Amino acid sequence: MTEGKIKYRGRIAQVGIYLRKFLRMFIYQSDWIVLPIGAVIAALVTLVTGKNMFVTMEGTNYGSFALTCACIWNGVFNSIQVVCRERDILKREHRAGLHVSSYAVAHMLYQLMLCLMQTGVTLLVCWIVGVKFPAEGIITPWGIVDLGITILIVTYTADILGLMVSCIVRTPTMAMTVVPFLLIFQLIFSGNFFNLGRADFVKNFTISHWGMDCMCTVGRYNTLPMTTLWKTMVRFKEVYVEDRQPIKELVVYMKENDLVDSFKVWSGQNSSVPSYEAIPVNVWHCWGALLIMIAVFAIVAVIALKLVDRDKR
Fold first, then answer.
1. Roughly what angle, to the nearest 10 degrees, separates helices 260-269 and 246-256?
2. Inter-axis angle of helices 280-306 and 207-218, to 10 degrees?
3. What are the Cα distances from residue 303, in Å, to 248, 293, 296, 311?
4. What are phi and psi of 226, to 5 degrees?
């Protein structure tokens, strides 16, 4: 009788059944371990880059990239094995009446819960380490809220990417084999540090590109001082040009007249990036691109699950 009732449960009811199952797994099968691991990853990243993040252009650039990569790492490892590790169970339940769309939606809701908690943990770690959050937001009145939404969307996009891969591959071993290629692709093809040449368009298909662009925008990158030019001048101040040291003279003059900070601001103003301009359209553009990725990954995941009965292994 029980089997008959479960077999004919509607799609919404099945979502609830599997969501409760995943919540029990979170408590009793140590799925909560992703939270302390995420905290450690965030701590390692912010300890290295947090001091100058949202303070200087360079610090914001490197810090945003590192934090984006940490979010991608957390998201992918949340879900990369969740489906393939119970593939045999899924096949049996699918033949008994399981709607794979309900199963996928339950996973997506559960993963969203994980990503929300990881976002909170990441922001807490950043605050403890001393990251100077932007005071004003672009979409909301608070910079930390804009940053938190960005971290959540980046983490969740990577999470659904991992879920899609887990629906496609057949074993946990195969899933973990794919992970390094996913992470390397995100690192190299973000378009922020490497010249991609003719492959520049590929950056539009990476989570890292949109995540970093959004964090730099939220962090008001274009309004921050740039220190690279000043440090370069200090490094080469001893260079002689026809028995003179013109760079040293300029460095000494700016120090004596308290012009160093003004020079750094001027350097930043002349190194602005249009896509980092602190305007709502840039933030919405990044969030929209990531949300489209989430939709595409989810659709592919459902399609892959619908073919589960064809798996003869």
1. 110
2. 150
3. 65, 15, 11, 14
4. -110, 130
